[in-house]
Design brief:
Mean pLDDT: 80
Radius of gyration: 24 Å
Number of strands: 0
Helix content: over 70%
Number of helices: 15
Largest sheet: none
Strand content: under 5%
Distance between the termini: 42 Å
Shape: elongated
Length: 405
């Protein structure tokens, strides 16, 4: 898990560090920054798709992050000019960001199932290059307005919320696929609940005033949904749907509102956008660094509990006594092999296919213990993410006057 997290951390860390330099460049040369960023992002995507080692994949992901910073900052500068003002551009950019953040995991799951994980990066390259068509006839003048201070409260809240959402966009997908053994396509369809809720909330959220109330409501929904994922009563994708609805609605309310506020002011939109992008992706890095150790510790702790419970289930089963010893040894061997291959052991293969109801009951009991252990292993991570989300209420409530529009 720690290794896998680096594929995400390298991208978000590079994007967070490159956002401000890209924003200052986009302030003066938006067309050039956007176009070069698009080409570099597409090239880095192809390197990711054909990477021959994990080290090369991580390096290419970092290059993607740096290029991505140029793309999003250049896009905001161009959008501000095309929309005819800062306020319309901020609303469009914020809405697109909220929807894009929610749709990504679902699209990735579908592509992975149908074509393999490499297809995610292969698809990115031609799709992102299509954005170059928008530059035909586009004009943008340098934005030389005085640089204002960033909106610290809004950006601090964005950082904390983005860190908390790592649990929803990363750990939840891992739980569905690696923990509960769903196919990536099925897992992708399950997590489409979040983008649908986010889109609906973002479209209707403007009716909630003042802005700080909309933001606080979104944060509470996100925290509540994450806490619900931490207290799931049973394993099963259906149990994740109500929490996902809450998280998605909260994302649509809070992320769009905070982004609009973070972009407000007379300063160059690209510069405010640079601060906002840096805050959001720094939050993802913080979330990965905080939640990954909690999760891996939970896996180790629940492995011991699962082994003890599984051993008890074998000894209490109705299969012949000598077979109990054989099955118990198979369980231990299967667990060791699964650890080396970073997968969940297949209980049915361990026990064997026997025409005996006692064996069927044992398989069901072992599977129940395994599902319970896997679900519990994620619990503390989801609860920690809920606490991280609630911390976003601190800058929101302390600076309510800045969030009254």
């Amino acid at each position: 898990m720690a290794t896998l997290a680096w594929a995400l951390t390298s991208y978000n860390l590079a994007l967070a560090l490159a956002a401000l330099p890209a924003a200052f460049l986009a302030r003066r040369r938006p067309l050039w920054v956007f176009g070069v960023g698009i080409v570099l992002f597409a090239a880095a995507s192809l390197v990711c798709a054909f990477a021959s080692s994990f080290e090369l994949l991580v390096s290419a992901r970092a290059a993607q992050g740096a290029a991505g910073a140029a793309v999003v900052c250049g896009a905001l500068a161009l959008l501000s000019h095309a929309a005819g003002g800062d306020a319309p551009a901020a609303r469009i950019w914020a809405f697109a960001g909220a929807v894009g953040a929610a749709v990504g995991p679902a699209a990735g799951g579908v592509l992975t199932q149908l074509l393999g994980w490499e297809s995610i990066f292969l698809v990115q390259a031609p799709v992102v290059l299509l954005a170059l068509l928008t530059l035909r006839g586009a004009r943008a003048v340098p934005d030389l307005q005085p640089i204002e201070r960033p909106h610290l409260a809004a950006n601090a809240a964005l950082l904390l919320i983005s860190g908390a959402l790592v649990a929803a966009f990363f750990l939840l997908v891992i739980l569905l696929i690696n923990g509960w053994r769903l196919e990536p396509l099925a897992a992708g369809l399950v997590v489409t609940v979040m983008p649908l809720a986010a889109i609906a909330a973002a479209r209707r959220g403007h009716t909630i005033t003042p802005l700080w109330a909309r933001t606080a409501s979104g944060v509470i929904l996100i925290a509540g949904g994450l806490a619900a994922l931490g207290w799931l009563p049973h394993a099963g994708a259906a149990w994740t749907v109500p929490p996902q609805l809450a998280i998605g609605a909260g994302l649509g309310l809070a992320l769009s509102a905070l982004t609009e506020r973070a972009l407000a002011g007379r300063s160059a939109q690209a510069v405010h956008g640079g601060w906002t992008i840096a805050a959001r992706h720094a939050g993802v890095v913080v979330g990965l660094l905080l939640l990954t150790p909690i999760f891996t510790a939970g896996l180790e702790r629940n492995e011991d509990d699962a082994l003890a419970a599984g051993t008890s289930a074998v000894l209490d089963s109705g299969i012949p006594p000598l077979e109990k010893l054989t099955v118990a040894r198979r369980v231990l061997v299967a667990v060791d092999e699964a650890k080396e291959e970073a997968r969940i052991p297949a209980v049915g293969d361990v026990v064997g296919d026997r025409d005996d109801p006692a064996y069927d009951r044992l398989v069901s009991s072992l599977q129940d213990q395994l599902d319970r252990a896997v679900t519990n292993a994620f619990s503390r991570s989801f609860l920690a993410a809920a606490c991280l989300a609630l911390l976003a209420l601190v800058p929101i409530l302390l600076r309510r006057r800045d969030l009254t529009v």
